[in-house]
Amino acid sequence: MSLVRSSLCCLACLLLVGCAPSALPPFSILESREGENPAEEMARLRCAALFPRGSWQLVHAIDYRVGQSGQGSVIGVTSLGRQELECALVTVEGLTLFAARQGPAGELTVSRAVPPFDAPGFAQGLMADLRTLFRRPRAGQVLVGRLQRPTGPGRSGAEPLASCRYLEPGGRVVDLSPGAEGGWRLQSYSPTAALERTIRAADCTLVGVTPIAGTLELTAPGPGGYQLNLKLLRAEMF
Q1: What CATH number does the domain containing 174 carry?
Q2: What does pTM read for this prediction?
Q3: Which one of 25, 85, 121, 137 is at 20 to 30 Å from 100 when CA atoms are compared?
């Protein structure tokens, strides 16, 4: 029982940690000719298509790790409305540990939070991660170009496909890089250019016309960083 409680406490602390400093990677904007660039428009559409549209329910098996010792597993149920977000964390036996809803204006209502999931800031942190995973960034401006990565053994430098850099009104920056084989990578940065989250998506399959990732890996860097590994169990549009 003490091991279970320790694991749950680790999960509750996951979303309360800080971010490690990091500089934005270089980004070369695609050049336009005569005010039009079909490649740029195609890249924008490719990036936008990676996020579910409409109303969905997604069920994932979630393995989490914090630091070097804390780890555990839960089932996550996420309901995406057109302007609403609901989520629940349950045990494999079906016990609900946490349930919350966030409305169109960002208002947050927690209907159930078993300790330690009632910790201050946990609900806000969880909803922020879910928005990063499943919602298109709220950008004031979207740049399209080539995102440069550090080179080295097995590294090619530039991304194989054009990337999208979302500039959000509050100064947050989100880089989204579609992969040549259907996966994608997302990195979000704070207004001070600190790396907040890295997400890697793979095993994408079409559900209707929407590509849904079979696996997602979310990493929060820093001394108290954590990692969430999500495996899709069910995806339904309603």
Answers
A1: 2.50.20
A2: 0.85
A3: 137
